[in-house]
């Protein structure tokens, strides 16, 4: 129908139209126009084209004619006459033409008046009217748009082009009006017919032809999508009738479709419109298959025209399956295999047409849907092959041969010119059914084509399902080599998807295949897998266990290695300890599950021990530290996880590992949909489908299977002749490690005859540490808790051999820090370490001495290196000593007299006897030190008893800034091995200790001979006097400050001040008020040095403040000086510097005054404030 065009008749000057026909036909479809349809349909852009034919009154349609394609839609009258000719003949001719149109009630017409240069020359007489004016006045007074002028159509000037453009625009507009008018009437009629579909006598096929006429019209206008919608609506309507029929709602017009099927020719897509088949549909003589073929061919033709070849392939699957369902619903009788032939032929025809019309060779969408068609075709051919006994190993009977003849007869005729390959679908099917070799050839071609297309689009699962069918086919034709590859791919797919039942079931086929190949190694592995499979029956498992043992007896000369993941599960690995010493016994308990159906005796079971890499060792140390900080998280065993860790850690033997573990059970729910009490649909849904159906990249998982190899078992746990029973078994291993480091279990090997079952073990949770304990030396005192510096003591040197042994005695050498010596018992320099075994210790008596050397540190440390000649190594040991004495000193003052006190403390519980104390002032001959204590006393000192010594310091010089004193005394101790009296010395440093000022202050009442009472002002007289012997610089500034508890004393006026001495004296008075009665301590007066700073200049006593404010701009003035009272407290305190201890003697520091309570009268004045 794509060649059909709307018909437009032309009348008038035939020669004129003949000369313009080509220009009109080419110019009309050049530009698109917007077609706005009724009923709210979206506007469409169409390129109008038309078939211009001569006018004939006989072809004018009647009002009652309900056709769309073959009727003329528009009528044009062409003329180029002058005014005289118009009046003489043309007007009558137009009148007659319009009369004929009005008779048929046709309002769609147009009069075109063509003008040229000659007519303009004749019109120079300036006629009052022109031809176009006369035409408009005679025929188009009410419809001016029905008349148009075409100026100089054969010229290329602007006027001609403009007139052509106006003509085409007018023609397009009027054509669309004509189409709308006819389509609206037609659609209204079509809707009314559709609404009567439930009335008796209504025929679907008559309605089908009616709506198809509308589809033809839309296709003719270039609206392919709208035309396809018409066919889709017809398809849906037919499906609804079939569904209603299946539910008991019968209609009369369906009865002829229920006739027995006599022809099962496939769909033909070689022509856009099969007129013969359409006529059959129109006459209501088409069978169900013929009608479905015709409907799909029309849909496919429109899709091909729109370039949507992939959608044809997509719709083909619904078309093939739905047609079969409809035949079953209508109970159409057909010979056995007829529907299969029809499906096969239709499928190949669709594939042929799609390949011919597909312009993009790498269209994945196209390949996706054609892959399903190739799969469908090979399945249908397989069904026909089984039905006609054409499969390998089958012999056709006479009845089956007769069936082949009947099927071939109903396929229809072959059209050789329709296939580019030279062989049509009919020819292929006939050839396939003619012999087993031809069947084999075409069947394998279809399978390979389907597999290749599935692999191209990445659907490897579907490809491997076809491969499983091919494996069965090759097994039947005795070609196990090719069958094995397909079976391995299928098993790999099942294992990747966790379909273990299907994988193990396919293993049985693989075992039979490998048995035919006479490959004992591969057959051995497969037999082992089957024997240990929990998904197969016990009979199969026992049978293949026997096959396993028989095959082992046949294999000699080499060993076979395979994974033990399916055969044995490791449930738990437990060490006796995660840390063991070198050469100690390490125990390992292994709990495993044997999946063999019978007890099996292994010649040897070994557990490989492998040294950890640096990263693995660091990870182990980190975990050990975490367990040390969190003891509740300690883990000393490795357990198999319950979700199939044997599959995750140990890859399936010979095959690719599972990429995702799926649950063995799924939770489903049912969905049932009913309408008016009738079952409409039912389905099942999985509650966790969103998790289970996550798309995995099939192509990305095609990794090569990792090979398994037996590792080095030089360091391993080992047991010989072990029988494992079906189910749980517990094995106990013991070994010794002769190398230090961090190790982990890497692999288990179960050896039986020539077979090694290898079980990889995860390093996580199976690591342990082997410690190498070096010899250690410890030095401890024999008769005390700690070594005492300054005396020679007896000690015990203990040697712990650790992981080493000493076969013969070896001399020891010592090297220590200065002032530290260590000798043998009795002072000997030779110290011998006796022979000893690993893990033992030995005590050696020694003598230790640490010199004091004026070191006042409370704890002394010394490092000693002990060298062992036989081990050729030196071991370092830190030894702690405690200083026996901790002296402290202090200077006391009585006006000018000074007393030096020295207190000696001890840090040990051992008694130290001191005697002959001496205090000297070297370099100061003017200082004499007189001991107050008795010189001949022997005084004990320990941690609970200290010694206090006091000296009177007599100074014969006016001023000494620094005094260095040296104290020495004799001391002895009962722990001293030599029993000697030793000498102890220490230095004392004293500075700024001579008395410079004497501070005296007193408090008295203002009135003479009157006691101080609370609340009354008293006078505090402060006197500061310089010691005569001291020489101070003139103008040295001093400061005093008075501090008192505010609840005891209230200070009046200044509580601090800066002064200078006059004649070595200074006196000042303060007002104080006692706040409490009783014996009160005087407020505390403190004397300081006053330090000047550049930022603040403080005047002494009476200094006036100079006002710096002036009216002169930018006038310079001296910075005013501030008195002490004007300084802030914090600023004042920052100028003060303390005297050293003893430089100021405060005579009144501890004085008190008796303050009496105040006396009150009985009269009390009360005032009320409003």
TrEMBL record:
Domain TRAPPC10/Trs130 C-terminal, residue spans: 1007-1155
Principal subcellular localisation of the protein: Golgi
Protein name, as recorded: Trafficking protein particle complex subunit 10-like
Highest taxon, organism lineage: Eukaryota
Pfam families reported for this sequence: TRAPPC10 (PF12584), TRAPPC10_1st (PF23036)
Keyword Transport attributed: yes
Keyword tRNA-binding on entry: no
Location of the TRAPPC10/Trs130 N-terminal domain: 1-313
GO biological process: early endosome to Golgi transport; intra-Golgi vesicle-mediated transport
Annotated compartments: Golgi apparatus
UniProt keyword terms in alphabetical order: Golgi apparatus, Transport
Example of a GO cellular component annotation carried by this entry: cytosol
Residues spanning the signal sequence: none
């Amino acid at each position: 129908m794509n060649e059909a065009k709307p018909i437009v008749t032309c009348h008038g000057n035939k020669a004129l139209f003949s000369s313009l026909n080509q220009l009109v036909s080419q110019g009309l479809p050049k530009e698109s126009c917007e077609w706005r349809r009724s009923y709210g349909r979206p506007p469409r852009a169409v390129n109008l084209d038309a078939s211009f034919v001569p006018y004939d009154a006989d072809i004018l349609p009647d009002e009652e004619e309900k056709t769309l394609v073959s009727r003329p839609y528009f009528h044009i009258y062409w003329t180029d006459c002058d005014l005289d000719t118009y009046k003489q003949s043309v007007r009558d001719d137009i009148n007659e033409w319009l009369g004929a149109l009005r008779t048929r009630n046709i309002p769609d017409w147009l009069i075109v008046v063509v003008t040229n240069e000659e007519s303009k020359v004749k019109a120079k007489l300036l006629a009052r009217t022109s031809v176009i004016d006369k035409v408009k006045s005679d025929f188009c007074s009410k419809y001016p748009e029905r008349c148009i002028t075409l100026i100089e159509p054969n010229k290329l000037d602007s006027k001609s082009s403009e007139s052509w453009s106006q003509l085409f625009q007018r023609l397009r507009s009027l054509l669309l009006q004509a189409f709308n008018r006819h389509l609206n009437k037609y659609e209204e009629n079509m809707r009314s017919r559709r609404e009567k579909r439930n009335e008796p006598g209504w025929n679907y096929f008559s309605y089908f032809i009616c709506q198809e006429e509308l589809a033809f019209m839309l296709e003719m206008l270039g609206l392919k999508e709208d035309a396809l919608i018409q066919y889709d609506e017809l398809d849906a309507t037919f499906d609804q009738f079939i569904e209603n029929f299946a539910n008991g709602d019968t209609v009369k017009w369906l009865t002829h479709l229920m006739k027995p099927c006599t022809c099962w020719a496939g769909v033909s897509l070689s022509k856009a419109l099969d007129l013969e088949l359409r006529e059959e549909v129109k006459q209501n003589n088409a069978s169900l298959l013929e009608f479905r073929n015709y409907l799909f061919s029309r849909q496919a033709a429109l899709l091909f025209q729109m370039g949507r070849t992939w959608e044809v392939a997509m719709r083909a699957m619904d078309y093939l399956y739905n047609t079969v369902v409809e035949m079953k619903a209508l109970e159409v009788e057909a010979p056995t295999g007829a529907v299969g032939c029809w499906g096969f032929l239709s499928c190949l025809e669709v594939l042929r047409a799609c390949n011919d019309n597909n312009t993009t060779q790498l269209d994945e969408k196209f390949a996706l849907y054609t892959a399903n068609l190739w799969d469908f075709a090979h399945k249908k051919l397989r069904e026909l092959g089984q039905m006609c006994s054409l499969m390998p190993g089958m012999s056709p009977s006479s009845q089956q041969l007769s069936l082949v003849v009947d099927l071939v007869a109903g396929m229809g005729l072959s059209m050789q010119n329709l296939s580019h390959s030279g062989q049509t679908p009919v020819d292929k099917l006939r050839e396939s059914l003619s012999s087993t070799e031809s069947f084999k050839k075409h069947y394998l071609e279809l399978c390979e084509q389907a597999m290749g297309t599935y692999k191209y689009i990445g659907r490897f699962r579907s490809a491997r399902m076809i491969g499983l069918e091919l494996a069965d086919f090759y097994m039947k034709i005795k070609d196990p080599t090719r069958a094995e590859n397909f079976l391995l791919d299928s098993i790999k797919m099942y294992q990747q998807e966790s379909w273990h039942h299907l994988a193990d079931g396919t293993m049985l086929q693989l075992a039979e295949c490998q048995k035919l190949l006479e490959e004992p190694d591969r057959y051995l592995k497969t037999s082992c897998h089957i024997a240990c499979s929990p998904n197969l029956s016990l009979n199969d498992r026992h049978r293949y266990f026997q096959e396993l043992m028989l095959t082992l007896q046949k294999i000699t000369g080499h060993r076979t290695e395979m994974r033990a993941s399916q055969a044995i599960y490791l449930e738990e690995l437990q060490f006796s300890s995660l840390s063991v010493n070198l050469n100690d016994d390490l125990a390992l308990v292994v709990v495993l599950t044997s999946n063999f159906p019978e007890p099996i005796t292994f010649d040897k079971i070994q557990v490989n021990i492998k040294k950890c890499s640096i990263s693995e060792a660091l990870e182990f140390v980190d975990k050990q530290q975490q367990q040390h900080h969190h003891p509740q998280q300690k883990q000393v065993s490795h357990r198999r996880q319950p979700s199939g860790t044997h599959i995750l850690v140990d890859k399936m033997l010979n095959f690719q590992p599972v990429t995702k573990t799926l649950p063995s059970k799924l939770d489903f729910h049912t969905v049932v949909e009913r309408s008016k009490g009738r079952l409409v649909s039912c389905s099942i849904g999985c509650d966790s489908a969103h998790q289970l159906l996550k798309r995995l990249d099939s192509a990305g998982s095609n990794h090569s299977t990792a090979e398994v190899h037996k590792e080095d078992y030089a360091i391993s746990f080992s047991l010989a002749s072990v029988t494992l029973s079906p189910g749980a078994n517990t094995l106990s291993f013991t070994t010794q490690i002769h190398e230090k480091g961090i190790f982990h279990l890497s692999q288990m090997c179960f050896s039986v005859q020539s077979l090694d079952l290898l079980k990889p073990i995860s390093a996580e949770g199976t690591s342990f540490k082997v410690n190498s304990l070096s010899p250690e030396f410890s030095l401890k005192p024999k008769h005390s808790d700690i070594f005492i510096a300054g005396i020679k003591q007896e000690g015990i040197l203990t040697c712990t051999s650790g992981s080493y042994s000493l076969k013969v005695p070896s001399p020891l050498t010592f090297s220590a820090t200065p002032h530290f010596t260590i000798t043998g018992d009795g002072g000997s320099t030779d110290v011998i370490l006796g022979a000893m075994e690993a893990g033992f210790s030995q005590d050696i008596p020694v003598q230790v001495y640490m010199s004091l050397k004026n070191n006042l540190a409370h704890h002394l440390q010394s490092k000693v290196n002990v060298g062992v000649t036989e081990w050729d190594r030196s071991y370092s040991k830190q030894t702690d000593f405690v200083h026996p004495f901790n002296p402290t000193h202090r200077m006391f003052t009585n006006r000018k007299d000074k007393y030096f006190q020295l207190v000696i403390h001890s840090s040990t519980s051992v008694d130290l006897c001191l005697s002959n104390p001496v205090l000297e002032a070297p370099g100061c001959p003017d200082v004499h030190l007189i001991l107050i204590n008795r010189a001949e006393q022997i005084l004990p000192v320990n941690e609970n008893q200290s010694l206090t010594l006091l000296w009177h310091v007599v100074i014969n010089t006016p001023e000494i800034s620094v005094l260095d004193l040296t104290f020495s005394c004799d001391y002895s101790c009962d722990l001293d091995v030599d029993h000697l009296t030793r000498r102890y010395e220490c230095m004392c440093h004293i500075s700024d200790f001579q008395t410079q000022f004497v501070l005296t202050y007193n408090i008295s009442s203002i009135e003479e001979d009157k006691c101080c009472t609370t609340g009354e002002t008293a006078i505090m007289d402060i006197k500061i006097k310089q010691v005569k012997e001291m020489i101070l610089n003139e103008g040295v500034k001093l400061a005093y400050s008075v501090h008192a508890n505010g609840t005891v004393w209230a200070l009046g006026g200044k509580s601090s001040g800066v002064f200078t001495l006059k004649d070595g004296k200074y006196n000042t008075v303060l007002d104080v008020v006692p706040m409490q009665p009783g014996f009160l301590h005087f407020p505390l007066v403190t004397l300081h040095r006053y330090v000047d700073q550049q930022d603040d200049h403080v005047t002494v006593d009476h200094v006036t403040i100079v006002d710096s404010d002036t009216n002169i701009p930018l006038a310079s003035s001296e910075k005013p000086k501030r008195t002490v009272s004007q300084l802030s407290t914090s600023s004042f305190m920052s100028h003060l510097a303390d005297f050293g201890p003893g430089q100021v003697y405060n005579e009144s520091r501890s004085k008190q005054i008796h303050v009496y309570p105040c006396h009150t009268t009985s009269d009390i004045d009360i005032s009320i404030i409003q």
